[in-house]
Amino acid sequence: xxxxxxxxxxxxxxxxxxxxxxxxxxxxxxxxxxxxxxxxxxxxxxxxxxxxxxxxxxxxxxxxxxxxxxxxxxxxxxxxxxxxxxxxxxxxxxxxxxxxxxxxxxxxxxxxxxxxxxxxxxxxxxxxxxxxxxxxxxxxxxxxxxxxxxxxxxxxxxxxxxxxxxxxxxxxxxxxxxxxxxxxxxxxxxxxxxxxxxxxxxxxxxxxxxxxxxxxxxxxxxx
Length: 223
Description:
It is found in: Cytoplasmic vesicle. The chain is built from five helices and 13 strands. It is α+β, with helices and mostly antiparallel strands. The chain has a six-stranded antiparallel β-sheet, with no helix packed on it. Strands 4-1-13-8-9 form a five-stranded mixed β-sheet, with no helix packed on it. It has a two-stranded antiparallel sheet with strand order 10-11.
């Protein structure tokens, strides 16, 4: 009897950290068109995807400690989630990042001081507006939902979206590949429209936000 009780106790102790620390992300499509939602993390390498018709939502659980996390909208996909016009990863169930242009909701969970770090990024361009808001934890949400596609500079225009300058030009000035870098006219185009979002790779000071580890989140497309 004692052995049986110990086994049950160990089982629940094993489950307890998972139930406390895993983060729940609800992904909501508030667009008037179908969006193929995708997510991926690099540590550990994992991912997924799902077709969301207007008004539909999808809930995913991400393990505590996950890093390099992204959630993004794909548009103009075939019925099997392939060949997307924006954000394509080559399959419905993404196992890696998508192709620019795509607006990104980024996160790393339970990091320094057990904080979650999260942001919205236009570093890979923009295709669909995003609201990224905690649903627990008592911290503020962020949003980028300007008319960036309609106002996109001619040099950055792409079918269904607005590219980032690094994708278009590939130079250190825009890609920040030669040490410290600063804003450019193109990054300022994104920053003035979405002040809370990353506009170039080293735009950290005004673009990274934190919540206590264990917070849950909602990502809304076309908020």
